Amino acid sequence: MELLVAVTIGGLFAAATFMLLRPSSFPVVLGTILVSHGINLLLVAMGRVRLGSAPILSSTTGPPADPLAQALVLTAIVISFGMTAFLLVLAYRGYQRAESDSVDLEADHG
Amino acid sequence: MAEWAIVPVLWPLLTAIVLIMQGGTPGRQRTISILSLLGLIAFELVLAASVTDGSILVHRAGNWRAPYGIVLVIDRLAIIMLLLAGVTALAILSYDAADPDPVIERLPFFFPLFQFLMMGLNGAFITGDLFNLFVFFEVLLISSYGLVTLGATARQLRAGLQFMVLNLVNSALFLFGVGVLYGLTGTLNMADLAQKVPLLPPSDTALMQVAMMTLLIVFAGKAALLPLAFWLPDTYPTPPPAISAMFGGIATKVGVYAILRVFTTVFADVRAPGAEVLMALGIVSMLIGVLGAVAQTELRRLLSFHIVSQIGYLAFGIGLFTISGVAGALFYLVHYTIVKCALFLVSGAAERLGGSADLKKLGGIAHLSPALAALFFVAAVSLAGLPPTSGFFSKFLVASAGIEAGRYFGVTICFVAGILTLFSMMKIWTMGFWGDPPATTAPAPPRRGVLLATGLLVSFSVTLAVGAEPLYQFTTATAAQVLDTAGYVEAVFAPGGRP
User: Fold this and answer.
1) Looking at residue B3, what DSSP letter applies?
2) Total domains in the fold of chain A
3) A72, B158: Cβ pair inside 8 Å?
4) In this complex, do B158 and A98 lie within 8 Å of one another by their Cβ atoms?
């Protein structure tokens, strides 16, 4: 289980790094989405990886999951959702204005 | 008094809500913003009066005792930052009131965004919780995304996209550092972390150091220290001058503040490797930043490169982690925030007057408006660090702290960078202010209010030079308080609040 989580997080980061280094803006936006997914998984994993445990103290469900880590992830998801929406609008407006999807600043002048 | 410590966060938030709700003309929005800011500064002065004796105000949100609830902490360092942010913002809004920028006139939601920016800044300065610091960074960043792209020219959209992607990745790394620390210690309260980090078993030390270096990278990226600074000269000059001045004046200082706060609480006992890296980055930034500035011919872009160089001085002083080093860096911070903001505003007015941002096309500003030229002269001399300005004292304090600690290489670079700063200021002066005005411009000298707003900042800088001794005493007391981790922890865990 730990191995699976670790490999998934690593894979997300690897893919995100590749996407972030692309020259046009849409893959870069996808890259930021992958980064935030990787981080969210990592945060959940930091509250310890346990199968089938709920963030509720109870005698029947076994040891509880860490609710704080989940609260942090919830905050991070909300922020990254809003940011992704704004980033997409920004990239699209930039594409309309400059008629190129390039991330590079100088490409507009050339 | 402690229960009022949350006001610097709530006040701008409420103002922003009022501004959004009532809409209205830009003029009305501006009046409300300025009045609200004056109220905030007055309140911060009251807060300042109760922390100058060295006491620390701790507000427990929801009255939950630390480390269960979030605490807001106001000490001397926090109050210096709060007041600096307030004064800079006031000067910028008065500048804009005197000479309304056409972009801001057309898009009056500049004013609520500006208040949200203030909220993020103030929150970051007073929070005592690492995750809360992340949230306030986001508040600050989200409003700056809006401000950077205000007007939506093609160039702004490109620069805004880069700025935003970079900061999203930076925020992700911040969360990574916070997450690792939480996994190791089970807490996010800075005072609690300060107690738990030194007690970590040796098997966890490597992971803790990864978290420390990640957070250093994150804050260095926000502060624009060198390998992570290339976004800044592209982003800061593109929006209207008032917004450039706000970013150049105070926004990058949040990163510097965060480094100082986190490395004197959370990592206080283990910071040695981080401090070495910080100092090395500072030295590189000082030199390369100013070399970048010398090569520029666009006015605000040149000044943006100077930010990188000046942040290097701050990083060098803080990286020493001695009382004199931190005190010198704080003195520098106060001086440089004000002077940098003044320079951005003056160059905004000069661009308006000369009709161009390019130094090659500017000329004869001293002829067109002697008062503006005089203000630029004082601010530029102060930035370069010539006596008898505040810049001289701040460079002197940082350098003498470096000599005290035996860091001769860094001190040498301080002086070299100072001379190059003077050189680049002379470049602006000879190309932009001397000579004949270009024949095409229709000279309309800047309005009196513009001169008044920038004059306010420049006179602050002069006052700092005359009153260097009291301020230095205060920053020394601040440095002593900041470096006293046990005192911070004790204040946060003082009895009171619900368990």
Assistant:
1) G
2) 1
3) no
4) yes
In a domain, residue B37? The reply is no
CA-only gyration radius of chain A, Å? 19
- The Cα B340–Cα B329 span in angstroms is 15
Those residues of chain A whose CB sits closer than 8 Å to some CB in chain B are 20, 25, 28-29, 31-32, 35-36, 38-39, 42-43, 45-48, 68-69, 72, 75-76, 79-80, 82-83, 86-87, 90-91, 93-94, 97-98, 103-105, 108
In a domain, A94, yes or no: yes
Q: Which tokens belong to B25?
A: 């003309």
- Tell me whether residue B444 is in a domain: yes
DSSP A63: S
CB-closest option in A43, A94, A108 to B175: A43
> B179–A75: do the CB atoms touch at under 8 Å?
no
B280 within domain boundaries: yes
Domain with A32 in it: 2-51+60-99
Number of domains in chain B: 1
Interface predicted TM-score (ipTM) of this complex, two decimals: 0.90
Place of tokens 């490797």: B273
The answer to whether residue B166 neighbours chain A at the CB level (below 8 Å) is no
Q: Give, for all 499 residues of chain B, the pLDDT tens digit.
A: 778 889 999 999 999 999 988 877 888 888 899 999 999 999 999 999 888 888 888 888 888 887 888 899 999 999 999 999 999 999 889 888 888 888 888 888 889 999 999 999 999 999 989 999 999 999 999 999 989 888 878 888 888 888 899 899 999 999 999 999 998 988 899 999 999 988 889 888 899 999 999 999 999 998 888 888 888 888 888 888 888 888 888 888 999 999 999 999 988 888 888 899 999 999 999 999 899 888 888 888 888 888 899 999 999 999 998 999 999 999 999 998 998 888 888 888 888 877 777 877 777 777 778 888 888 888 888 888 887 888 888 888 999 999 988 889 988 998 899 889 988 888 888 888 887 776 665 666 677 778 888 888 888 888 888 888 888 999 999 999 988 888 898 888 888 777 6
Q: Which domain holds residue B340?
A: 271-466
What DSSP designation does B74 have?
Answer: E
Contact criterion met (CB below 8 Å) for B339 and B310: no
Contacts of A98 in chain B (CB under 8 A): 154, 157-158
Asked whether the beta carbons of B81 and B73 are under 8 A apart, the reply is no
Please report whether residue A91 resides in a domain.
yes
Distance (Å, rounded) from C-alpha B372 to C-alpha B380?
A: 12
Task: Report yes or no on A16 lying in a domain.
Answer: yes
Cα–Cα distance, B29 to B10 (Å, whole number): 18
Does A33 reside within a domain? yes
As given in the structure block, the two tokens for residue B171 are 């925020």
Residue contact B180–A20, C-beta within 8 A: no
CA torsion sign, B3 to B8 to B10 to B15?
A: positive
* Chain B residues with beta carbon closer than 8 angstroms to that of A69: 179, 182
Nearest C-alpha of chain B: how many angstroms from A61?
A: 22
